[in-house]
Amino acid sequence: MTKDIFDCIRESHSVRHFKPEQLPEPTLTRILEAGNLAPSAGNLQPWYFYVVQDPEVKQKLHAAAFDQEQIADAPTVVVLLADPARSNERYGERGAQLYCLQDTSAAAQNILLAAEGLGIGACWVGAFDEVKVAEAVEAPPRLRAVAMICLGYSDEQPKEFKERLRLTDVTKFIQ
Question: Is 3.20.20.140 the CATH classification of the domain at 5-156?
Answer without folding.
Answer: no
